[in-house]
Amino acid sequence: MTIHPVSERTWESLHPDQRLALKQAAARLADEFTGLYGHETIERFLASSFDQFADRARVTKFLPLLAERFARQRLDALARVEGLHADGKPVVLFLCTHNAGRSQMALGFFQAIAGENAIAWSGGSEPGLEVNPVAIRAMAERGIDIAREFPKPWTDETVRAADVVITMGCGDACPIFPGKRYESWELDDPHGQDLDTVRRIRDDLERCVRGLIATLDL
Predict the structure, then answer these.
(1) What is the reported pLDDT for 213?
(2) How confident is the model over 139-198, as pLDDT tens digits?
(3) Does domain 11-81 have CATH number 1.10.8.1060?
(4) Which residues, at least 6 apart from 111, have a Cβ–Cβ distance to it below 8 Å?
(5) Residue 4 clears pLDDT 60, i.e. is over it
(6) CATH topology of domain 91-215
(7) Which domain of life does the UniProt lineage start with (predicted)?
(8) Is 60 exceeded by the pLDDT of residue 6?
(9) What is the 3-state secondary structure (H, E, C) of the chain?
(10) HSE of 68, CA atoms in CB hemisphere, 13 A
(11) Residue pair 111/163 in contact by the 8 Å Cβ criterion
């Protein structure tokens, strides 16, 4: 399988380790989506996902892994939109500006509480460089690890696949698609806040998430 990165980046310009990692990622995704999507689609999603992170990454070592995780989410979303994957689970999308604080904490609570009964993703209109370390610490106090998460943009397929879209502070930049259930949560941005303030935001988010889950047919 040959990967053809998009934009100005060429396959030859990548480090050999990155090329190998992307080839292995493509093979894994091809196995996971056998019968749904062919190599060309998988390569395109993997390459575009790689480019989403490559130009703003501080550490490039994990770029292929981030690209694989993001491509997997996007392909799953596309399969749901196209009716190729229908497991009956509600899909919730949490959106904020940088996908570094509120939406990541909300995602962490949702996954911890709803478990395998629902699907949840998060995204940002202007993704940051890393998840807020104070938010990571505050969530760790609740036994929820969001340190492995990473800021990423929302995409058309993830919004279209969602049953519920929760917006937090992204304003007009948040995508609006007809037929979706939208909720706007008015919560302070944890960016630049101290731990005590982020704890309060965390607790407000937990109440909101529990209220949301109570409305879903799980």
Answers:
(1) 97
(2) 999 999 999 999 999 999 999 999 999 999 887 777 788 888 999 999 999 999 999 999
(3) yes
(4) 120
(5) no
(6) Rossmann fold (3.40.50)
(7) Bacteria
(8) no
(9) CCCCCCCCCCHHHCCHHHHHHHHHHHHHHHHHCCCCCCHHHHHHHHHHHHHHHHCCCCCCCCHHHHHHHHHHHHHHHHHHHCCCCCCCCCEEEEEECCCCCHHHHHHHHHHHHHHHHCEEEEEECCCCCCCCHHHHHHHHCCCCCCCCCCCCECCHHHHHHCCEEEEECCHHHCCCCCCCEEEECCCCCCCCCCHHHHHHHHHHHHHHHHHHHHHCCC
(10) 20
(11) no
Using alpha carbons, select from 9, 30, 125 the residue that is nearest to residue 72: 30
Calculate Rg over the CA atoms of the chain. 17
Mean of the pLDDT values across residues 85-89?
Answer: 91
* Residue 154 one-letter amino acid: W
User: What pLDDT score does 7 carry?
Assistant: 44
According to the model, what pLDDT value does residue 12 have? 61
Name the residues annotated as catalytic: 96, 170, 174
What is the sign, positive or negative, of the torsion defined by CA atoms of 210, 151, 167, 47? negative
Please give the backbone phi and psi of residue 169, each rounded to the nearest 5 degrees, phi first.
85, 5
Tokens of 6: 């998009």
Q: What percent of the chain has pLDDT over 70?
A: 93
The domains of the chain are located at: 11-81, 91-215
